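Justification of computing resources. Each target in the renewal requires a structure prediction run like the one illustrated here; the chain below, 142 residues long, is used simply to show the kind of job we budget for.
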Amino acid sequence: MRRGSFDDSRPLLLILLPVTLEDFAQREPVEQLLGAPGVVAVDPPRVPLSVTLAQAVAKRQVKRLRLPGYPRAIAICDERQLPLAAALIERHPEAELWSLSAHRPDADFTLDLATATDLRPAWERMERLGVESGRLGSERVL
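Resulting structure tokens:
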């Protein structure tokens, strides 16, 4: 797959990580989500970017992303991820914006991983979007 290309046959949930997974306070629920076949995490930049700089480079970042599918949902855990999420949604307008932290009025779906005890709402939403969760009967025979 060439840079910036997407497999147009596999819907994905992209989780934009605010820090490395090992350092993330909500690591356990994110790892549960990442156990699903249709979920992919995008690591944070190695060097923290200001919001202004993040906005300037987000479109370039999206062009360079290589994913094993196309985003149907883009999950953010922190405000600093909004520029990249916005650039991804601009390129894939059918994708939903998810918040995995506090409620956001502009998010299509919110699940606060810091307080959630059940990920079933996320699994159900994924299934409605065609993202394979590996649960709820979504296993696909290839």
